[in-house]
Structure formats: structure tokens, C-alpha cells
Amino acid sequence: MKNEKPSNIVEDERVFTTKEAAKYLGKSPRTLEGWRRNMGGPEYSKTGASKNAGVVYRKSKLDEYLDRYTYSSTSEYPK
Asked: Whole-prediction pTM value?
């Protein structure tokens, strides 16, 4: 079984910049920057080890974040 990849690898998963992720979520880039500083919002990755390395968001992590905040009624909102 050559060329098999682990099942947890998403092949060719879309990666978003902060600006693209913000648009996808209907938020501003500044909102995502604030969430990162305050340890909130969707998970993100750094493109290197330095403090100034770029930030990217995997589409699957953005979708997971949206799923966590999906409601069918206002009575379901957390109190």
C-alpha cells in the first residue's frame, strides 16, 4: 500500500490569511488579531518560529469555530 497518507491529513486543505479568514467569518482582521492576543477565536498556525512569522488559518479550523457557535434558537445561546 504505497503512497497511503494518514487519515488525519487533509489533502490540499485551503489556508487563509488573516484578511481572508476575517472575510470568511464576517469579521474584521482586527477582530481576529484581538482574538489571538486574548486566546480566543479559531485556532491558527504560524508560518515560522519567529515572533514576526505570518499567521494562517486552516479552513477546517474556521469551520470548527463556526460549528461551535451554531444555534437553531436564541434560547440556546450560552448564559
From this structure: 0.74
